[in-house]
Amino acid sequence: MISEEGFLNVMLAGAQGASPSATGVEVAGSGHWLAEEAPQRIIEEINAFYPSK
């Protein structure tokens, strides 16, 4: 997850070069400390990427 608006596409392209299945979302209202500012959103995105069986 990237918090800087417009930065997502730049970072995601590099990540997908190493891991083609990488995804990303912009998290409005967050800054550099994403884990402290939007912890529930991080959990939701991880759970969506690694769904339970």
Detailed description of the structure:
With 53 residues, the chain is an all-alpha fold. 49% of the residues lie in helices and 0% in strands. The relative contact order is 0.19.
Question: Helical region count?
Answer: 3
Give the C-alpha Rg. Answer: 12 Å
Structural class: mainly alpha
Mean of all residue-level pLDDT scores = 83
* Secondary-structure element string: HHH
Helix content: 40-55%
Poorly predicted tracts of residues: none
List descriptors.
single chain
Topology summary:
Blueprint: H1 8-18, H2 34-37, H3 39-49
Provide a concise account of the structure shown.
With 53 residues, the chain is mainly alpha-helical.
